[in-house]
Amino acid sequence: MGGIGIDRSRLLLLIVFLGVALGGYALIDLQILAAGNLTSMAVFAVEVGILALGQTFVICGGDGGVDLSVGAIAALSQVLLGLVLKDRLPWELGVLAALCAGAVMGLANGLAYAVLRIPSIIVTLATMFAFYGLALVFTGGINIDLTASPPSFLAIGQGSVIGLPFQVLLIYLPVFLACAYLQLFTAFGRGLYLTGTNDLAARLAGIGVNRIRCLTFVIAGVLAALAGVVSAARLGTARPDASETGNLLSIAIVVLGGADIFGGDGSVVGSVLATMVIAVVDYGLSYNNFNPIYQAGVIGVILITSVMAQNLVRFRARQRS
Amino acid sequence: MMSGARGRTRQASKPIPGQAALGRFIASREGVLLVTLLVLGVAIDLGSHGALWYRANVTSFLVDFAITAIPATGMTIVILTGGIDVSTGSMLGLIAALGGKLLAAGWGLAVAVPAFLLLGALFGLVNAIIIIEGAVPPIVATLGTLSIYRMLVFIVLGSAWLTDIPPVLTKIFVTTRLGPLPVATLLALAVMAGFAIFLRFFRAGRHIYALGNNEEAARLAGLDVLRIKRASYVLIGIFTGLAALLNLGESPLVQTSTGSGFVLTVIAAVVLGGTELSGGRGTILGTLFGTLIVQLVQDGVVLLHIQPFWSGVLLGLIILVSVGLSHAWHRPAEAA
């Protein structure tokens, strides 16, 4: 572990990926490095990037921890926000409601894991069905149009501050810094790392293993809701089926960022770099008029090869499968 | 530990002396599921005023059941070994697209049916190679192939839907019946019965439990652990090919989204059936009940004129309650 919680080979790998992707596209068309294109990439990265930050903590916590419901939480929170806005209540209230709902959903995941002792992959598989289902029930399956919302709300997803997109500068950056702080400088972050590496040892050291893991789900829930708010503001609509790819994509990003799916080895910085790689690859594909579905395939290839590369670098084959 | 390879592994519940076999069954995981199933069935029967038993509904229920049950049998085995395969839905879409093209091009069933199964075996083998040779954790590896297979579906189909699939599959698997059951359903039941017997009574079947319970011990006992794993991923691939075939029988149409979301239903059925994701525990009988419950919930919501959106909510709740209850029941001492 280096000073920023990511090992050096992974850091190098991600930077190489990023350089190769950007360089490759630049060879095709230098225009991709223009400011406008770079900010478009950043805008895309924000929503899935926020999901991935929450997912990082859950996966770090170990015990096979993974949250399959983050996309569903984003969707249901977004729908609640949409309902508040539709009733012409203040938009701040809607955002607050969405974030609280995200916290409650995350807490439900955490409690089902910690109290009922159901493996988190099952818990969140079940709640993913349930949250998407509720989002459909609340909307009747119809998108809520938010284009007539107050401009101050839409600015969250469409505005810009000193030439940068609002959500990049005033949402993603602070959230990233807060997450990095949480991971590197707090008792929670150290406890989380210990818990993910060896939960028996952590327990014997007096760390509230279950409380920490429960908290990771709450964090993931709040961040997912935040991602839902940003995407609602950007698109001017609240969709009950929002972020459907986000559930798995966020996991892919965290693993690409160097996390061990079995816990311990994840880092906020790694996840952010991995988000950038994904954003560049995706944007470059659509910029060069490839069907967006190639993005999914390329991400799959990157995911698998990065883990294999890591195995090679570490020179030890893990046969834990 | 060693005897686990040959002898019996842990049962779903401990035998209680002095109780009849029936009592033991009802207290077991499978028993709880059966009771749940009956309660659901009766509730839907009463609520729908008998619409549950309309012929069209019964047929679609039974065929839907088969399409989920066959991959769920493979998934049970993969999970028993301690692995998982989340690529099943994309794989089903890809096999349906490739095989559908064959059928649409006029190839007969003698070519198409083996092609579906071989494609499944091939894609399953790809998963196995990444997991075993590449030492990539199964969930990561299949998460990757999930995206890759889905991309290939788009490449195969272009932007068009594949609609000119001959109705012969529907005729064979859905409309032809032996007794009350469509051929698709009989096929599913046969697969399940075969693998239930294999897992319980065959040496190789016991080896799967041994591997899932303790991989290191299984290796030391001389089992070819990697071969068992490889076989389990190839098997779920073949079953996915079979499900793709039945799927085209049910609706002769392939679109780019065919099969997306399917894997979650399959995993839900397996988990609901009591198979534990940590490996080594679970039965095909449980998966049978799990699949029936999942399908009954989806069917019941329609029949009871509940907004169909509730089916996801109900399914989620049923998984949580059922798994939560069984954990509370069987492992109270482990709480710490």
Quick rundown:
The complex is a heterodimer of chains A (321) and B (336). Chain A has 321 residues and is an all-alpha fold.
What fraction of residues of chain A sit in β-strands? under 5%
Helix content of chain B: over 70%
Tell me the structural class of chain B.
mainly alpha
| Rg of chain A, alpha carbons | 19 Å
The share of residues in extended strands of chain B comes to under 5%
Uncertain residue segments of chain A? 317-321
CATH topology-level fold name of chain B: ABC transporter involved in vitamin B12 uptake, BtuC
- What is the CATH-assigned architecture of chain B? Orthogonal Bundle
Distance between the termini of chain A: 24 Å
- Largest protein interface? A-B, 50 and 54 residues
Q: Could you give the order of the helices and strands of chain A?
A: HHHHHEHEEHHHHEHHH
Which architecture of chain A does the CATH hierarchy give at level 2? Answer: Orthogonal Bundle
In terms of structural class, how would the helical and strand content of chain A be classed? mainly alpha
Overview of this protein structure:
- Chain A is mainly alpha-helical.
- Chain A has one domain (8-314): Orthogonal Bundle (ABC transporter involved in vitamin B12 uptake, BtuC), CATH 1.10.3470.10.
- Helices cover 73% and strands 2% of the residues of chain A.
- Chain A has 13 helices and four strands.
- Chain A has helices spanning 8-28, 35-60, 70-86, 91-114, 120-139, 151-158, 166-185, 187-197, 199-204, 209-235, 246-256, 268-287, 293-314; strands at residues 144-145, 160-161, 164-165, 237-238.
- In chain A, the strands form two sheets. Chain A has a two-stranded antiparallel sheet with strand order 1-4.
- In chain A, a hairpin with a 2-residue loop joins strand 2 and strand 3.
- In chain A, helix 3 packs across helix 10, helix 6 crosses helix 10 (209-235) and helix 7 (166-185) packs across helix 8.
- The longest helix of chain A has 27 residues, at 209-235.
- Chain B is an all-alpha fold.
- Chain B has a single domain (24-41, 52-330), classed as Orthogonal Bundle (ABC transporter involved in vitamin B12 uptake, BtuC), CATH 1.10.3470.
- Chain B contains 15 helices and two strands.
- Chain B has a two-stranded antiparallel ribbon.
- In chain B, strand 1 (177-178) and strand 2 (181-182) form a beta hairpin.
- The two termini of chain B are 25 Å apart.
- The model of chain B is unreliable at 1-12 and 332-336 (pLDDT under 50).
- Chains A and B meet through helix 5, helix 11 and helix 13 of A and helix 6, helix 7, helix 13 and helix 15 of B.
